[in-house]
Design brief:
With 756 residues, the chain is of the alpha/beta class. The protein has 25 helices and 28 strands. A hairpin with a 2-residue loop joins strand 11 and strand 12. The two termini are 40 Å apart.
Length: 756
């Protein structure tokens, strides 16, 4: 097999070494445009997981690396003249030049043809003359661009400028230094990579970079100024360059990683922000996976498909974590007012890969100090601390999110709703929310949706609230009021979500006459008189909700339903006072909110659910969401329930773990208003992490509560918590300890015999 590798960085070189070691008959050539000792940046951080893969695949490379690693455990965070240290993290780094030297030597020993100062031939020629072409030529990959129509790269440029530098002493920890200057916030990321050297990255938003005058300075003057700004952590020492230049980070994502016998590896295939130290790690892991797949599969074609199938999900997960970390630093100004320990905890958990439970194991003393500052009583996880909204005190921070059950008859809640909501109330959550309860028969999504437009429906709800208050004391129950708008008159979810009814349809109304889907019914644009009637319908439903005994009321202004349709520019095309600018699009939802607040008891809280992004070009975005939240808070909303999407059918959500929580985070830390975070929050560890970091006040979980109605009780048991934040119902208390399973502690053999 003839193998061409374009790019002599760590990923390309390690792929060459592995492939040659696995089959010495392979002819492997590496083209590198730079000289052997040319490199960008300074230190490289590798995880224990990556090092374990190297140790198993090539012990000689691992042994060579071991001799040059600098290791440390601590992370230091300096914020407003306060320095906090968190230990137990475990890092290993070495100089990038040293890493390349080790890989050069290994490749030469194995017989790889290394061609430095050489531009690789055109990709098409390489593909014709070689059995395999590995494109490891970085973020600006010429191979990727030559076949862009196949790989379909998407490159996102972000909002910060940064520069790679170094200093001539070793930090004793991974350092994060925050400088609040007259021009804005700047941050330093620093870590040791040799006994006498550390990598230093200086980063700031583009507008700060320009305001500080860096755009007009050459590199020498830039680094001199950086050294002065961060003189304290640098001990007054100078900074050094290595082909350093200010740049902006670009996230590279490719729809496909291979084409015929050409495959992308490392930064050519994907990038992940340096703040989680993943670039070299991902490239080395790519090389390991590619070599393994070529060994395991019967053909190059099958091997490349297997490689892509194996690595894509792993890289996507890393990129989500890196994106969260990147955006945290882009928006660091939101968090500067946090108490120093909470700020440090927030920074440490920014990527959502390090969590509260994870940190508690690594550094219990630091984590306990953050909990004390937050107000957690001893032995109390953050999720079981109380929260007060107006006259209502929630005993814990868990919310059973509104979930449509489509199980009502003529809008009347029945036995199913009693058992469904009652079970989840017995399950320990601080607040249990109903599904969207419709304010009119025409405002239902489906024929199975509940309502609050008749006295009989109010009595049905009273039966449920009475059960919750009597049988699950301490659990609050809230009602979510809404109107389907253009998304109404559809089938039950399991019969065809958002599909129009085959018969028995009712007429739809909306902000503008735009169907939700091409096959959806076209709604009528609401007239002024109809807007007045709708306000009255919402107010009447709220009055009935109060008499039915609900503790909290939420106004549904999300997910493309009626009020959400007024907020989004994609669904509101009106030319009167209720359409146009955001302030005008807010007018009717605010009028409805005010009408409800006028009849809802003063001591009971009201929340508003919004879609913080439409996930569609030209729609509502994060900054709009902040202004929407600001407006509702000014009108008396006690908390904002921050969801996303479902506004337009052509949306393109960016799914992932806790993927909607950054929107709640931004609103909370921009406005200081309490928020409810939702969206793929599945573990109690996530809940503790988000609350303790100050990114949300409450966490709403939907599917986990369908899987386990007693999710909150089980979260308490798994954390060995027994306190006022959650109470097992007396009939269930015998089940408050995890049942025993099969024996796992059998005696181990005292003697193992080897082969004769």
């Amino acid at each position: 097999m003839r193998v061409a590798i374009v790019g002599g960085g760590p990923g390309g070189l390690y792929a060459a070494a592995l492939l040659k070691r696995l089959d010495p008959t392979r002819e492997i050539t590496v083209w590198e445009r730079n000289a052997p000792d040319d490199t960008f940046g300074f230190g490289v951080v590798l995880s224990d997981e990556t090092l374990g893969g190297i140790e198993h695949a090539d012990p000689q490379v691992y042994e060579a690396l071991q001799h040059h690693f600098t290791r440390w455990d601590d992370i230091d965070i300096s914020h407003r003249n306060t320095r906090h240290t968190s230990g137990g993290h475990g890092f290993a780094a070495l100089g990038r030049k040293r890493l390349l030297e080790i890989l050069h030597n290994r490749c030469r020993t194995l017989g790889v043809d290394l061609r430095f100062n050489s531009e690789a031939p055109y990709p098409a020629w390489l593909a014709e003359t070689h059995d395999l072409v590995i494109s490891a030529d970085g973020v600006h990959s010429t191979t990727r661009e030559a076949y862009a129509h196949v790989f379909r790269p998407h490159v996102t440029t972000h909002h910060c400028r940064y520069i790679w530098l170094a200093t001539d002493f070793a930090f004793d920890a991974f350092r994060f230094e925050i400088a609040e200057t007259e021009h804005g916030v700047m941050q330093l990321h620093g870590y040791p990579y040799a006994p006498d050297a550390s990598t230093v990255i200086v980063e700031m938003r583009e507008e700060v970079w320009r305001a500080a005058g860096f755009a007009d300075l050459d590199v020498a003057d830039s680094i001199e100024r950086c050294a002065k700004i961060f003189a304290d952590p640098l001990r007054g020492r100078p900074l050094h360059t290595n082909k350093s230049a200010w740049t902006t980070f670009r996230t590279v994502v490719n729809a496909h990683w291979s084409h015929e016998n050409i495959v992308l590896l490392g930064d050519a295939a994907h990038t992940a922000h340096f703040s989680i130290g993943s670039g070299t790690k991902l490239a080395v892991e790519d090389a390991l996976a590619l070599a393994a797949c070529l060994e395991e599969q019967p053909s190059v074609e099958r091997a490349l498909a297997a490689y892509e199938e194996e690595r894509k999900p792993v890289v996507a997960s890393t990129q989500r974590a890196a994106r969260a970390s990147l955006e945290w630093f882009e928006n660091i100004g939101l968090y500067l007012g946090q108490p120093p320990r909470q700020f440090a905890f927030n920074l440490l958990t920014r990527s959502r890969r390090v969590t509260h439970d994870n940190l508690r194991l690594r550094d219990p003393r630091f984590t306990e100090s953050v909990e004390r500052d937050f107000g957690c009583p001893p032995g109390t996880p953050p999720m079981f601390t109380p929260l007060r909204l107006r006259g209502l005190t929630l005993r814990n921070r868990v919310v059973v999110s509104p979930m449509d059950m489509y199980s009502a008859v003529d809008g009347l809640p029945g036995d199913f709703h009693l058992v469904h909501l009652g079970a989840r109330a017995l399950g320990g959550a601080g607040l249990v929310m109903t599904e969207m309860v419709c304010v009119s028969a025409e405002g239902r999504i489906t024929p199975g949706c509940t309502g609050l437009y008749t006295a009989e429906q109010a009595e049905g709800w009273r039966r449920i609230t009475d059960f919750v208050h009597a049988q699950a004391p301490g659990t609050a129950i809230g009602v979510q009021l809404g109107h389907s708008g253009r998304k109404g008159s559809t089938k039950l979810m399991w019969e065809g979500i958002d599909e129009p009814l085959p018969d028995g349809n009712w007429p739809l109304v909306a902000a503008s006459p735009l169907p939700y889907r091409p096959d959806s019914q076209t709604p009528r644009e609401l007239t002024r008189a109809q807007l007045t009637d709708l306000r009255e319908q919402f107010a009447s439903a709220a009055w009935r909700a109060a008499r039915a005994g609900f503790d909290l009321l939420e106004l549904h202004c999300a997910h493309g339903y009626l009020l959400s349709g007024f907020l989004s520019p994609l669904t509101n095309r009106r030319t009167d006072a209720y359409g146009g600018s955001l302030a005008e699009r807010l007018r009717f939802p605010l009028e409805v909110f005010d009408a409800i607040r006028g009849v809802w008891p003063e001591e009971r809280p009201m929340t508003v659910r919004i879609s913080a992004t439409d996930w569609a070009e030209g729609g509502t975005g994060a900054e709009d969401a902040v202004e929407i939240a600001r407006a509702f808070a000014a009108h008396g909303a006690d908390a904002i329930d921050v969801s996303t999407g479902q506004v337009v059918a052509e949306e393109r959500p960016e799914y992932g773990r806790s993927y909607q929580t950054p929107y709640a985070d931004r609103i909370r830390n921009s406005l200081g208003v309490p928020v409810i975070a939702v969206g793929a929050i599945s573990s109690w560890d996530d809940v503790n992490s988000l609350i303790l970091a100050g990114r949300t006040d409450l966490c709403a979980l939907a599917r986990p509560h369908l899987y386990d109605p007693h999710w909150t009780l089980h979260a308490a048991a798994e954390q060995s918590y027994d306190g006022p934040g959650v109470t097992w119902p007396a009939p269930y208390r015998a089940g408050s300890r995890r049942p025993q399973t099969g024996r796992t502690d059998a005696p181990k053999p005292r003697l193992t015999l080897g082969p004769v």
